[in-house]
Automatic annotation (TrEMBL):
Top-rank lineage group of the source organism: Bacteria
Gene3D superfamilies reported in the protein's UniProt record: 3.40.50.2020
Transcription regulation listed as a keyword: no
Function per UniProt: Purine salvage pathway enzyme that catalyzes the transfer of the ribosyl-5-phosphate group from 5-phospho-alpha-D-ribose 1-diphosphate (PRPP) to the N9 position of the 6-oxopurines hypoxanthine and guanine to form the corresponding ribonucleotides IMP (inosine 5'-monophosphate) and GMP (guanosine 5'-monophosphate), with the release of PPi.
Source species taxonomy: Bacteria, Bacillati, Bacillota, Bacilli, Lactobacillales
Name of this chain's protein: Hypoxanthine phosphoribosyltransferase
Domain Phosphoribosyltransferase: 14-161
Record EC number: 2.4.2.8
Alphabetized CDD domains for the sequence: PRTases_typeI
Amino acid sequence: MDNDIQRVLYSEAKIQETCKRLGSQLTNVYRSKRPLVVCVLKGAVPFTADLIKRMDVYMDLDFIDVSSYHGGTKSSGTVKLLKDLDTSVAGRDVLFVDDIVDTGKTLVYLQRLLRNRGAASMKVCTLMDKPEARPSDGVKADYVGFQVPNEFLVGYGLDYQGKYRNLPYVGILKPDIYQA
């Protein structure tokens, strides 16, 4: 798999350092609350696992799965709910944890969905933010690990056709891999 990577952007050590920083911030924000941490499947699983270990607060954890890529390299623009939450969000402080905010369509969809279900508050923590990939419509994450370039990234949860999620770092996938 390493041979398919053009360049490593964030090493495993740098990612862990960022998880520690974000975990500390979130501990301060949610110290007197019991947030519902919502991991956006499947890409955010490694990040969520590392992040919540560094949050010194009582919390509940749930998972939601949505798709807009459908196996390609660009968002289709249509978000589809694949797995819903098992926990009610009514009156809860919700913290979305996602691997990357790209076009922002998934984030808008999820925020609308949970607002309609009565969430008391919603914040977004993402490992990576790719602002170049979306229109300037105000979509943004509240807590960001890294601002990333508009490249096709894989590793540490990010995939291409289900592959590369298990890389311990984030790298740029060689274009000839996905343009073939």
